Amino acid sequence: MIKTLAEHALNLQFAAALRGVLQAGYRRSDFKADLLAGITVGIVAIPLAMALAIASGVPPQHGLYTSIIGGAIIALLGGSRLSVSGPTAAFVVILHPIAQQHGLGGLLIATFMAGVVLTVMGMARMGRLIQYIPYPVTTGFTAGIAVVIASLQLKDLLGLEVAGLPEHFLPKVAALLAALPTTHLPDLIIGLLTLAILIGWPRLKIAIPGHLVALLVGAVVAWGLGLVVDGFSVATIGSRFHYEAGTLVGQGIPPLPPLPVLPWHFPGANGQPLELSTELIQQLIGPAFAIAVLGGIESLLCAVVVDGLAGTRHDPDAELLGQGLGNMLVPFFGGIAATGAIARSATNFRAGAKSPVSSIVHALLVLAAVVSLAPLLAYLPMAALAALLLVVAWNMSEAKHFMHILKVAPRSDIVVLLACFGLTVIFDMVVAVGTGVVLAAFLFMRRMAEITHTRRLEWSHERWSAELPERVQVYEIAGPLFFGAAEKAMSTLEQIGQQDAVVVLDLAGVPAMDVTGLVALDSLIERIHHQGACVILVGVQRQPAKAMEKAGIKDLPGRLAICRTLEQALERIRERRAGSSPAAETGSPAVGPSA
Predict the structure, then answer these.
(1) For residues 404-424, average pLDDT
(2) pLDDT at 129
(3) How do strand 453-457 and strand 242-245 relate by DSSP bridges?
(4) Is pLDDT above 80 for 495?
(5) Residue 52 Cα to chain centre, angstroms
(6) Residue 229 pLDDT
(7) What pLDDT band is residue 464 in, cutting at 50, 70 and 90?
(8) Rounded to an integer, what distance in angstroms lies between the CA atom of residue 89 and that of residue 132?
(9) Mean per-residue pLDDT for 516-541?
(10) Nearest to 112 by CA among 284, 274, 331, 293
(11) DSSP assignment letter at 66
């Protein structure tokens, strides 16, 4: 069994994006384009990785390690040519509670477990399942995640003094409102300055990344005002975080590459030693599954977006497998959960990337920055990083698109959208997605049941060349016959009287039928037979025909006949009655099996 799964995984990897690029021919010009694109994305990723790690409740270097290890491994093994993987904003709402409850060690173990789940999903070829998640569900929980992320940034943006934020949204907002009197003016000034540059920079249409300029200006202004204004000080990465790496001790992030380490050697909650146990694993199963589900959705959505931009085609199963293997290895180098980052991937495409090599270059640039620029990164103000994440949250919410959906979408989709949004904000993403998918499924079944109908067909010169034979009624069933619609469709046929000798059911408009539809149809045939009439089914499509054959619904003389068209069925009735007048006189259903 294990050997079979391993061979299956290997076969999937042979279809990975990097191998496809190399087979098509990789030229020097392609490498040059990938090099420039990777450098551009790497510059974008460095502050984002740190900010997202901090927002997730862990020191900033762990976000950088995620971009280095996860970015390189997933690019090598994944199924999307231009996707860039690393820490993303969507993960914050899941990772932050895990870090609070179980510490960094527990978060890394949950990431490894999520990687196992993603790997199994890829090996089971579940990549196509993303298309079955309704659009209002993804839009709703994404907007909800954006609101939660924005609320988490208010503490650092305003420099609030809050001992500890509650886990859930409403108590968290209450704690932030209660702490407003402790707003620290220097932090607020730097945060608003950074926010203003981030908002205004795109209008200048300059090629330099706006967030790089905003963070640089924020850091320089904070440092300069700290020199000339008495009492002007802001929280920075260096003042907030410190590290101990062997004999190396300092402020900010360690100037070291990600080194191999066992995840359970990192501290647990409140900095206490982590106790690896069966109980801990059981507690982390739910969060790990949440990471895997969100990671799978986010990475495949990212791949779809990039395909739309670049005209490429990703392998969803290989992408899931690459994401799974990447998340299994990342924790052993101190990295947190990684997935495809839509904004960085779009930047990668616009910068001219040609292959996954650009993502590998991006990972190497982040590595170079960690080793060489760690002391300078310590000067980045926390308020400036909070402003950056506020802009990320705003872009992630797609507020204008959200409001447009509320105006134009059907009422059922609006219900799903608002339910997912509200549940994500108040509870969590897992509850929101689960409830949203179930709610959307029920509303979809209701919609399908509404379009499924049965009607009696009256004789007309336009439809038939001759009048209906006596004691023959024709009914048309249209729409899918499944458990949500079968009973409604069959209830119309309860009015069939005993005076009818033959009942013709036109099923040409039935594209699909499940077991409930089969049972309802079989019961109807049985009831009509007991009333002394025969049933003829016409125009049966391929899927219902296969289902009926498997269920044993077939030609039975005097009870059931199956014809290809309605004209054939009526002609057959006329021929049978003309050839057996006694039957016609007594009114017995003189219809045999179809030829």
Answers:
(1) 91
(2) 77
(3) unpaired
(4) no
(5) 20
(6) 93
(7) low
(8) 23
(9) 87
(10) 331
(11) I
214 touches 387 (CB < 8 A) = yes
- Tokens matching residue 297: 């959705």
Question: CA-CA distance, 160 to 389, in Å (whole number)?
Answer: 17
Range 453-586 classified under CATH 3.40.30.10: no
Token representation of residue 213: 């300029």
Share of the chain above pLDDT 90, in %: 56
Beta strands in 479-569 (DSSP E): 502-509, 534-538, 560-563
Q: Is the pLDDT of residue 493 over 90?
A: no
Where do the H-state alpha helices sit in 124-268? 135-158, 169-178, 185-204, 210-228, 237-240
- Token pair, residue 146, equals 């954006």
Q: Which two tokens stand for residue 412?
A: 């059922």
Strand 453-457 versus strand 85-86 pairing type? unpaired
Is the separation of the CB atoms in 471 and 442 below 8 Å? no
User: At residue 583, what are phi and psi to the nearest 5 degrees?
Assistant: -65, -40
Residue 536 CA: distances (Å) to CA of 496, 527, 544, 555: 14, 14, 15, 9
- How far apart, in whole angstroms, are the C-alpha atoms of residue 142 and residue 289? 18
- The pLDDT of residue 502 is 86
Spell 320-353 as b/e; 16+ CB within 10 A means b. bbbbbbbbbbbbbbbbbbbbbbbbbbbbbbebeb
What are the extents of the domains in the chain?
50-441, 453-586
* Mean of per-residue pLDDT scores for the chain: 87
Both tokens assigned to 449 = 């049941």
With tokens 């220097």, the residue in question is 186
Give the residue among 17, 77, 82, 139 at the shortest CA–CA distance from 346.
Answer: 82
Instruction: Check: CB of residue 139 under 8 Å from CB of residue 417.
Output: yes
Distance CA 336, CA 34 (A): 26
- In degrees and rounded to multiples of 5, residue 509 shows phi and psi of -95, 15
